[in-house]
Design goal:
The chain has 268 residues and is mostly beta strands. 6% of the residues lie in helices and 64% in strands. It is built from 2 helices and 14 strands; from the N terminus they run H-E-E-H-E-E-E-E-E-E-E-E-E-E-E-E. The protein has a 14-stranded antiparallel barrel. The radius of gyration is 20 Å and the shape is globular.
Length: 268
């Protein structure tokens, strides 16, 4: 079986559980495995592993399944790993959030990327810190800072970048459909005396607790913009296991194909 056939075979095998009436039980542990790639060459994508622990049980009885973690507003720790075989690239991720009783919170994270080929090697380290406030049961405002330091054996290719961000996120419940998840942030980056700022917007409309359609838009200080559309679906297979699908199309800048992702999620 080829790499291109594995995600499709996995989806067909697990879809046999469609008739199961899953119960929305609370969870504190969440683990996932997924595969994502461009549809024009689906065999050249990335495999992703993730795990997250929540300090308090997370309810998933009323809100969209994909937003359970955000809406829980509880302390959590997460870890992730991504590999791209065709690019000889491995990425590692750690992050944590501590939520105080008054709904203020602190954030911290670390990311490492390792790349190697016959011609060059590349290592990148990103350290991030931030904080914010949950100003109601469905919304949060935050500020963050991160520093990226990259090293390579290619002469003159080492660099460091400072990133700053201010943002807000809010989930608005609706009567006829589940609701809308709105996100907005302003970013500023500095590298070797150069800087750039950008405004980023994202909206996902949840027609049901499982299915969303949305779009995103970004524009920087030079007037360069980017936008696209996305959809996602969360298929419950049992009380603890779900199959996830996502599809995104970049409209500007124009690109061939679409990004597709299929995953398996476990909540316990």
């Amino acid at each position: 079986m080829t790499n291109k056939q594995i995600p499709l075979a996995l989806a067909m095998m697990l879809a046999s559980g469609l008739s199961y009436a899953a119960a929305d039980v609370p969870f504190q542990h969440e683990a996932s495995v997924s595969y994502g790639s461009n549809t024009d060459d689906f065999g050249d994508g990335s495999w992703n592993l993730g795990y997250r622990f929540y300090a308090s049980p997370v309810s998933q009885e009323q809100q969209p399944y994909a937003l359970s973690g955000f809406l829980a507003q509880t302390s959590n720790l997460g870890a992730g790993y991504t590999t791209v075989d065709d690019a000889d690239l491995d990425a590692y991720h750690l992050d944590g959030q501590y939520v105080f009783s008054n709904k203020w919170f602190l954030l911290a994270g670390y990311d490492k990327v390792e790349f190697g080929s016959d011609f060059a090697s590349f290592d990148s380290h990103v350290y991030s810190f931030g904080g914010g406030y949950y100003f109601n049961d469905h919304s949060a405002a935050f500020a963050s800072y991160s520093r990226q330091e990259s090293d390579s054996n290619w002469p003159g290719s080492d660099f460091s970048v400072d990133h700053y961000a201010l943002g807000v996120r809010s989930y608005i419940k609706m009567q006829s459909t589940a609701g809308v998840d709105l996100q907005m942030n302003v970013t500023h980056s500095r590298m070797d005396g150069d800087s750039n700022s950008a405004l980023n917007l994202n909206a996902d409309w949840y027609l049901t607790r499982s299915w969303s359609i949305g779009g995103h838009y970004s524009i920087d200080e030079d007037g360069d913009d980017a936008y696209g559309l996305q959809t996602a679906y969360w298929l419950r297979l049992s009380d603890n296991i779900s199959l996830t699908f996502a599809l995104a199309k970049t409209i500007e800048p124009d690109s061939d194909g679409m990004f597709a992702k299929i995953g398996l999620n476990g909540r316990f």
